[in-house]
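Hi R.,

As promised on Friday, here is the backbone we talked about, encoded as structure tokens. Could you run it through your design pipeline when you get a chance and send me back a sequence?
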């Protein structure tokens, strides 16, 4: 019988601090059992005898490969195509004025793209609602802290469950069908992929000097800040504010708000903000 690994409070405190420092996720003390459940299999895979030994392994890994693996285990990659329906309705109304202000050069950042549903939704939306889409200079940056989900995103192959709620028009126009081991899967067409650049990026520790000042028109950062504490949220919103131009938009999750952050963003609708 395999002995069950138990995450002791001292070990949890060490992992808790490490995760906050390197990933930015703030784990309350009540999350000890969640961390134990998510990491136990990995600890055994590495042939380690305890969570304390795993912490030592993390610290000793100078190439940060295990940190990347840890990020994918701790973060919750729940997403879907065209989630937050009211945001897409807003974007449809505002799209003509956004394009006019941008001079036809549109830059959008999907800041926690997970397995790709969000950036592909953005690209399909623009292709569907912008007449003569190809005449515009449009680029979508899609980043995530996890290389594991980025590989899924770049592959662009989705199960029937993943596309269940997708409009039939989008499915027909922007996907091709593939049979894998007797099951139908749906692959994003290259015409959608070609406007998206996927990159690994940590929102908390990443180098924001990589972004040209005021080059972005829209940032999507949805259902990410709920994992951060107030100071980390505030620092992140500050960075977003700096790299957005005047009138640029920030889209966040429906369960999030900038209410306590006192930034110069105007609330345009629930979970939609515009730089003043």
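Update: got your reply. Pasting your designed sequence below so it's all in one thread:
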């Amino acid at each position: 019988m395999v002995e069950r690994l138990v995450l002791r409070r001292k070990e949890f405190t060490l992992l808790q601090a490490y995760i906050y420092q390197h990933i930015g996720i703030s784990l309350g003390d009540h999350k000890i059992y969640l961390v134990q459940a998510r990491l136990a299999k990995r600890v055994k895979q590495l042939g380690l005898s305890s969570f304390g030994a795993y912490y030592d392994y993390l610290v000793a890994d100078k190439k940060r490969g295990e940190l990347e693996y840890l990020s994918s285990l701790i973060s919750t990659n729940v997403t879907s195509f065209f989630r937050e329906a009211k945001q897409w309705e807003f974007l449809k109304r505002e799209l003509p004025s956004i394009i006019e202000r941008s001079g036809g050069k549109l830059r959008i950042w999907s800041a926690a793209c997970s397995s790709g549903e969000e950036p592909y939704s953005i690209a399909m939306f623009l292709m569907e609602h912008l007449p003569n889409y190809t005449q515009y200079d449009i680029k979508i940056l899609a980043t995530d802290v996890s290389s594991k989900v980025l590989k899924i995103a770049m592959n662009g192959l989705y199960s029937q469950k993943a596309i269940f709620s997708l409009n039939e028009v989008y499915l027909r126009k922007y996907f091709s069908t593939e049979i894998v081991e007797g099951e139908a899967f749906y692959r994003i067409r290259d015409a959608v992929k070609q406007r998206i650049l996927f990159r690994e990026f940590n929102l908390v520790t990443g180098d924001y000097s990589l972004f040209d000042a005021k080059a972005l028109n829209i940032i999507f950062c949805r259902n990410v800040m709920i994992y951060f504490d107030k100071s980390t949220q505030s620092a992140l919103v500050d960075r977003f504010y700096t790299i957005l131009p005047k009138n640029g938009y920030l889209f966040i999750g429906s369960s999030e708000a900038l209410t306590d952050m006192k930034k110069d963003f105007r609330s345009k609708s629930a979970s939609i903000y515009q730089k003043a």
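One thing I noticed while checking it: Residues 9-74 form a domain with the Chemotaxis Receptor Methyltransferase Cher; domain 1 fold (CATH 1.10.155.10).

Thanks again,
M.
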